[in-house]
Design goal:
With 482 residues, the chain is α/β, with parallel strands linked by helices. The chain is built from nine helices and 23 strands. The protein has an eight-stranded parallel barrel with strand order 5-8-9-10-11-13-14-15, surrounded by four helices. It has an eight-stranded antiparallel sheet with strand order 16-17-18-23-20-21-22-19. It has a two-stranded antiparallel sheet with strand order 1-2. Helix 7 packs parallel to helix 8 and helix 8 packs parallel to helix 9.
Length: 482
């Protein structure tokens, strides 16, 4: 049904129930779902263009998925014909995206129940209580499955049941706690372990032996996969200037190989399944994720790698959508390249943080509408998963106007272009795709998903594209022989 012109999803028994978006206008009283005012040109929320659209339903032998198609209010003049759309990437719903090693950290409330003001129009005698499902719509649109949440989501009965419901749609949950929980918290974890795919324990390093014992005791009562994270104390702060270390930070860093080896000597492999890393803003996700993968492979463990979108300075803002989208694209490429080595990657930047500390834009804005990063995740996931062929990592190259990350499939060399503004790609270095000589490259705009074709040939300096490719957003160029 679609009467209220906004999206919701519920499940009654074994039946999925959807309320559809509208192609015409949004019921603007539901703008209360967002904690920011409607856009200035949005008619008090009625003309929130990114929320306008319809569902394309794919029917399978067992089940279905609903893909949102955002129309942004586009219309045709009477009698006009719809222009051909051309070749585009086929997106994957979270339920379809079985190879999805990139997840998201959900800092903001993502299943929040909000009271809608009694406006005096359609409601006068009470406020409506409704859940904000626009975060869920954005997750499905991107094909993201893994969600990292604090333990308080498991404590909240309503959110907990929402987590249980969404596992039906393919979602998986990393639930984190500080230290080993006790009392009622411990009992809740054991009782509802079926909702938790990975339990992440943040540990003070001097207490790690005690914490391992506590984890073992709980795992004896509930079959939980566990990832251990290291709390960063003041001893890890950058000295100088007499400044106080103002933020809480945790996760191993790739340079701490000895700490991982020490865990193994303590018998941690008998208790925990993996460890949690953090990647600093100034570090390349490609190189850092690769280093983490090597360390945990040697230790016989798995890794969850959290890619930070903020720096260590709480006053520094990162509001450059292109730079942020480039970072997410690089992290997704690295996650795909390392997925067979037991590595999962989580982006710490789902929605905008526009106040307080560590300000940065996210994959979606404060109205839960997609930014460039959301489009890039959606289309890059679709492009990399268009076949089930194994994807192998290549290397990262500094290029004129940006950086290039290469990946390999049995039949193609993939070049992910992470551009600076107004960059132009003329090819990839000679060391990549040495067996290829010439062909027609598929060039995918990762903002729109549109695909064009460009001839290329091997030269002494690499694979060259005759006229080059203008890159205003991240692009994926697929070179194949023939």
């Amino acid at each position: 049904c679609g009467h209220v012109h906004n999206f919701w999803y519920n499940r009654h028994g074994d039946t999925d129930c959807y309320i559809l978006p509208s192609t015409a206008f949004v019921r603007h009283d539901y703008s209360e779902l967002s904690r920011v005012a409607p856009a200035l040109d949005a008619e008090h929320g009625r003309n929130d263009l990114p929320k306008l659209g319809f569902f394309l339903v794919r029917i399978y032998e067992r089940g279905h998925v609903c893909h949102v198609v955002r129309t942004y209010g586009a219309t045709l003049d009477p009698g006009a014909a719809l222009a051909p759309t051309g070749e585009t990437v086929a997106p994957l719903h979270s339920r379809e995206n079985v190879r999805a090693p990139l997840g998201l950290d959900l800092r903001q409330p993502w299943a929040e129940v909000v009271e809608i003001t009694a406006t005096g129009a359609v409601d006068e005698f009470e406020r409506k209580k409704v859940r904000n499902d626009y975060p869920l719509l954005a997750l499905w649109e991107m094909g993201v499955r893994t969600l990292r949440v604090p333990f308080q989501d498991l404590e909240d009965a309503g959110v907990r049941e929402r987590m249980r419901l969404l596992r039906h749609m393919g979602h998986r949950f990393i639930v984190y706690t500080f230290d080993v929980p006790r009392g009622r918290t411990r009992d809740l974890l054991i009782e509802h372990h079926d909702v938790v795919d990975t339990w992440e324990v943040v540990a003070l390093w001097p207490d790690v032996a005690r914490i391992l014992e506590g984890i073992a005791e709980i795992k004896g009562k509930a079959p939980l996969a566990v990832s251990l994270s290291r709390l960063r104390g003041k001893d890890h702060a950058h000295p100088g200037g007499g400044r106080f270390y103002h933020f809480i930070d945790h996760g191993f860093v790739p340079s701490e190989r000895e700490a991982i080896e020490q865990l193994v000597l303590m018998g941690a492999r008998d208790v925990v399944d993996g460890v949690t890393y953090r990647i600093l803003r100034q570090d390349s996700p490609w190189r850092a994720i690769g280093s983490a993968a090597e360390i945990v492979a040697a230790a016989g463990l798995r890794a969850t790698v959290v890619v930070r979108m903020a720096s260590q300075n709480p006053a520094q803002a990162f509001n450059d959508d292109l730079a942020n989208a480039n970072r997410v694209a690089e992290a997704l490429a690295a996650a795909m390249a390392q997925s067979t080595r037991g590595v999962a990657v989580v982006i710490d930047g789902f929605a905008d943080i526009d106040r307080g500390y560590f300000v940065r834009t996210g994959l979606v804005d404060r109205r839960w509408n997609p930014r460039l990063g959301a489009h890039v995740v959606r289309n890059l996931y679709g492009a990399l998963n268009e076949t089930s062929e194994l994807i192998v990592g290549g290397d990262v190259y500094e290029a004129s106007g940006g950086r290039v990350v290469t990946l390999h499939r049995p039949t193609e060399l993939l070049a992910l272009v992470l551009p600076e503004p107004h960059a132009r790609l003329h090819g990839v270095p000679a060391s990549a795709g040495s067996e290829l000589t010439s062909g027609l490259a598929r060039v995918i705009d990762l903002e729109t998903g549109s695909i064009t074709r460009q001839p290329w040939q091997r030269r002494d300096d690499g694979l060259a594209i005759a006229d080059g490719i203008a890159c205003a957003v991240p692009m994926l160029t697929c070179f194949a022989a023939g």
